[in-house]
């Protein structure tokens, strides 16, 4: 799965995203990007960033793959927009293929990224294209690499990346409290690049990231592969949104053991979806211990998930074709998921290949079967073609994406809902029955057209 690439050449491509630095207002870029000067993030010959701060007065472009220098910190100020710049060609030493990549920001071991936006001024990584012309893969993605524990050798390279001279793109180690920085109020839109099967750049990729890192209020939308992928590590997170991603919204591998609370997964009938052997392979969540039998490496992958909402597609026939499982726990992964909602999938949750754990206090709706491979106790389930009547969420028939405009306030459980609990502390799903939704202000649910 893991490929090591080296820089071969820079493509001379005459695109708007290849403008020279500080060319003045970017009038050729439509509503998604603010009308500000553009500048390419400066790097040395190996792609190492030579700047320490990115300010909001400029739209910053990433040529190819850019790396924060190990031992240093890159700070991105609130309200800053970052997009893809020039495409660079990278030669794959293993396959001999050449890959053309743009817009990837990598934070190697010992480096840090401080990207703390605010609800009124989020930091946005997005497509350079005009409204109506934005697509998955327009931007590359964000990759954090740390020295926290995994169940792989510490020499394991993160998938999908070139390795410049003097820069280590491996992940993992023995420091559970490792600190890769802080991301708050961040959106990552239209990311992703597929080098080959099982070797992709995701929206936000986290390899061996430790508990010293802060991940809060992050939205990944319209990704070409996974929204959030955790390769081992111990990092905790809260307030995450995954929207219209091609493959899995949340993917856990290689011994990830952190805790995530309050997260929303929305599938889109208009997005593309990954396939395997001709059938959909797109899940709300997928978790593996590792990819090789008998899947025995330790520490075992064991995410602790609280207050998630996974929503598939309103139409049962479409969901049965475009999607696979709301949750897919497999390959000896362990799990602990509680107080969550899964709805709009043919099968709510699948337990495969010796996956074990705790799955309680959840509300499950499915079109065909609540569970596959196991029937865990302590959950409320319903199998029918009508999710909305069972769930009784505030938005009635409008809980599934898309509606225009989409407002997650429709997902708050009513007092008659099985997700209501005591209405205060034991509710199910991502949103409190009466409080203001935590997505307010900083999220964007129409990134193709805003």
UniProtKB/TrEMBL annotation:
Residues 270-286 have a biased composition (Low complexity). Residues 267-299 are annotated as: Disordered. It comes from the Bacteria. PANTHER family: LIPL48, SECRETED PROTEIN. This is T9SS C-terminal target domain-containing protein. The lineage of its organism: Bacteria, Pseudomonadati, Bacteroidota, Sphingobacteriia, Sphingobacteriales.
């Amino acid at each position: 799965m893991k490929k090591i690439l080296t820089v071969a050449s820079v493509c001379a491509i005459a695109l708007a995203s290849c403008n020279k630095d500080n060319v003045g207002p970017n009038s050729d870029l439509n509503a998604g990007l603010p009308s500000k000067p553009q500048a390419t993030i400066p790097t040395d010959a190996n792609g190492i960033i030579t700047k320490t701060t990115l300010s909001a007065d400029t739209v910053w472009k990433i040529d190819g793959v850019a790396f924060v220098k190990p031992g240093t910190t890159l700070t991105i100020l609130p309200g800053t927009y970052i997009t893809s710049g020039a495409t660079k060609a990278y030669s794959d030493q293993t396959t001999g293929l050449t890959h053309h990549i743009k817009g990837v920001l990598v934070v190697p071991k010992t480096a840090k990224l401080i990207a703390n936006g605010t609800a009124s001024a989020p930091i946005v990584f997005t497509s350079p294209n005009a409204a109506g012309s934005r697509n998955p893969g327009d931007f590359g993605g964000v990759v954090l690499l740390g020295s926290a524990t995994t169940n792989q050798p510490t020499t394991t390279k993160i998938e999908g990346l070139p390795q410049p001279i003097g820069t280590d793109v491996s992940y993992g180690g023995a420091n559970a409290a490792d600190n890769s920085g802080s991301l708050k109020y961040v959106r990552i839109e239209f990311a992703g690049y597929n080098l080959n099967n099982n070797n992709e750049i995701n929206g936000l990729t986290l390899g061996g990231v430790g508990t010293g890192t802060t991940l809060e209020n992050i939205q990944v939308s319209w990704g070409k592969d996974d929204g959030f992928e955790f390769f081992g590590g111990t990092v905790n997170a809260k307030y995450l949104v995954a929207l219209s991603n091609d493959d899995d919204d949340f993917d856990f591998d290689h011994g990830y053991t952190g805790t995530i609370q309050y997260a929303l997964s929305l599938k889109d009938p208009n997005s593309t979806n990954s396939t395997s052997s001709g059938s959909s392979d797109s899940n709300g969540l997928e978790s593996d211990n590792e990819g090789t039998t008998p899947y025995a490496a330790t520490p075992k992958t064991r995410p602790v998930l609280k207050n998630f909402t996974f929503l598939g597609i309103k139409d049962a026939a479409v969901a049965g074709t475009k999607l696979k499982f709301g949750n897919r726990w497999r390959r000896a992964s362990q799990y602990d998921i509680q107080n969550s909602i899964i709805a709009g999938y043919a099968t709510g949750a699948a337990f495969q290949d010796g996956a074990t754990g705790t799955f309680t206090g959840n509300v499950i709706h499915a079109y065909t079967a609540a569970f596959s491979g196991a029937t865990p106790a302590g959950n409320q389930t319903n199998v029918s073609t009508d999710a909305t009547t069972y769930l009784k969420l505030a938005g009635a028939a409008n809980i599934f994406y898309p509606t225009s405009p989409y407002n997650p306030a429709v997902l708050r459980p009513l007092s008659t809902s099985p997700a209501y609990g005591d209405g205060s502390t034991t509710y199910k799903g991502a949103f409190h029955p009466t409080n203001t939704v935590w997505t307010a202000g900083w999220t964007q649910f129409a990134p193709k057209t805003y």
